[in-house]
Write a structure and sequence with these properties.
144 residues, alpha+beta, SH3 type barrels, 5-stranded mixed beta barrel, 4 helices, 37% helix, 25% strand
Length: 144
């Protein structure tokens, strides 16, 4: 069984490597089956943010005409891509920034905010269930 502290520690680890989420209009590189191969990369543009690191991408062919839209595409650093046969990797591929382009600090804000919120809820729950808090509550109830 996972304890609250284990969950907090896991969130602290995730906070060290947040997943970026680009804004709509960002140019990205899409990788078929989330495999970084030279021949498997296609230029794309983010057309919708679906969640942390998860975007809808319109892909462009060599003639620069939009040719396909991919839904539910996760960043290449997302843990689901560790299993190359994962349905999301196979069906939606993966995305990353073009060579020489780094994620902006703002691109990490969504994931950091979500992780910090989850961590705060766990810390609050841990404080409510700790023996010190329970003792204080019993003592307070006894006085009343």
């Amino acid at each position: 069984m996972t304890t609250l502290q284990d969950q907090i520690d896991k969130l602290d680890e995730e906070l060290k490597n947040p997943i970026p989420t680009p804004s709509v209009g960002t140019v990205i590189v899409w990788y078929n089956r989330a495999e970084k191969k030279e021949d498997g990369q296609i230029a794309g543009i983010v057309t919708l943010v679906e969640g942390v690191g998860k975007v809808r991408v319109t892909l462009f062919g060599p003639s620069a005409m939009p040719r396909y839209t991919v839904k539910g595409c996760l960043h290449m650093s997302h843990p689901v891509h560790q299993n190359r046969n994962h349905a999301t990797s196979v069906n939606s591929g993966g995305w990353d920034y073009p060579d020489g382009v780094s994620a902006k600090k703002a691109d990490y804000a969504m994931h950091i905010s979500q992780l910090e919120s989850r961590k705060q809820h766990l810390v609050d729950a841990q404080e409510q269930t700790s023996p010190k808090t329970a003792t204080k509550k019993v003592a307070k109830d006894a006085v009343a």
